[in-house]
Amino acid sequence: MRMYKSINWQIRTFFILWLIFLYFNIRQPFSFLLLNTFLGYIPIELSLELDNKHIKNSWLMWPIFMIWIVFYPNVPYLLTDLFHLEQLYPYIQGNLRLDSLIWFNYACLMVTVIACLILGCYSLFKVTNALAYKMHLNNIISKLVILITLTFISSVGIFIGRFLRLHTVYIMLSPKVVIKQLLSMWSPEMLKFVFIMMAIQLFACWVMSLVYKNIKNTK
Length: 219
Description:
Strand content: under 5%
Distance between the termini: 17 Å
Oligomer: single chain
């Protein structure tokens, strides 16, 4: 338990320091990175609370999960932020520009994306295990089904955020409009995008599981 507490506080400390760093150093056209990093951190923090046995074994687990599922798509959503690198105009006459500002912004974006992707998988595993425990489905197949279902939901969430540009506040202000858009968004191209984002998430989770198993076997 002490080990998990240490890991959790290392994660919290990293995000606090990183958000402070971004607040004071990041500028246009990458000012979006501060908010997106914070939104990506929220589900990671929520999943850390599942280490608390009192929460895991009580009804509190369900509201935490509901909030987590709303915010978790913000984690893989950061992968689509890589397209913002185009705004840096990194090429000149076919060659990469040697400009410290370009590479600084590149580094900030990559640190956020890599950190959130890795810790997002960590969060996803925690929530998957918590759901399996709560529903008494502790076999591998059941956990895999839960994991795939969560990546599907999050991939749909990425599509909603990236292409429909819908935010949670819209549900409260214009629920009928939101529901209409959600019902009409399904198409072959939309599903292709969803399955691509699912594949990326599942691949990252697979790599993380291999690393974890290797570390566990070497102890």
